[in-house]
Design goal:
The protein is built from three helices and five strands; from the N terminus they run E-H-E-E-H-E-E-H. It is α+β, with helices and mostly antiparallel strands. Helix 2 runs antiparallel to helix 3.
Length: 118
Amino acid sequence: MDLQIRVTGGDEVGERARLLEWLRSDRRLAAHVRVQRRPPGAEELGGTLDAVMVAVGSGGVSAVLAQTLPAWIQSRRPKVKFTLTTETGDRLELETADAAEAPRLIAELLRHHHGASD
């Protein structure tokens, strides 16, 4: 299953790029992380980083993401919002203030999705 992570607020493209770098720096996640780009606009030369995609579902990737992502969220200044969306459309919105609850909420979202797809 792919989990889409979007960032809104602040320097969105910059925050997405920093999130991508953060997740790829964890050797347990690096092979499971990829970029989703949006097509270029009329005045753009190339597509913009639209979201970070993480393939979760095997090898404990869900558990690692539930640990790693909250640390990233907590480190963000200024306040930004993160939206995690599963392939089935289940969504979880988190803000920097939610960092303490994020591990539980992310694990719950992923557990719910895996239970629905079994």
